[in-house]
Amino acid sequence: MKINGKKAFVNKLLKALVISGAVVIAASNPFFGLKAIGAICKELKRKKWQNFRSGLYYLKYRGFIEVNQNPDGSYSVTTTGAGKNQARKYNLDDIAIKVPRKWDKHWRAAIFDIPAFKQKARMALLSKLKELNFIMLQKSIWVHPFECHNEVAVLAEAFGVENYVNYLTCSSVSSGKYLQDEFEKRNHIKLI
After folding, report:
1. What is the CATH number of the domain that holds 117?
2. Who has the most CB within 10 Å: 62, 100, 113, 190?
């Protein structure tokens, strides 16, 4: 089994557990408690019991879920706070930068120096920064007018480049007028 396929399955399993809350798994049929979760039904049909069990073990080992045996022999599976945070990390399509009523006149900069062996992660990060309306100041410096520290941190961690990405808040940028004009033009909003 490929590592990426296993990781994708484990992430889907964790997300399904977060959505469902607590799940009871019968000892005789381990899929019983999860069959009601539409998000993972297809995966369960394709995966063997061993893959499912190793996925649960991995999530438990990482502290993302708690598994407790009930008196009737079934198991209760619940997600921990860390599990919920982990599931949020992989929901990158939902990341958005909140637009405040009034701009505080500060620029936020995502600065990175990502090594060549992480080129795919760098490209994924750049793609997401563009999608979030960051403006390139230099090849490895991308800026945004609104608070986005958490969003940048989640992206960096999700792509495995958190050690190479820094975040700055700047009250003055020499090309501030250009950045403001460019941001307003691209996003059809007035920074006030």
Report:
1. 3.30.70
2. 62
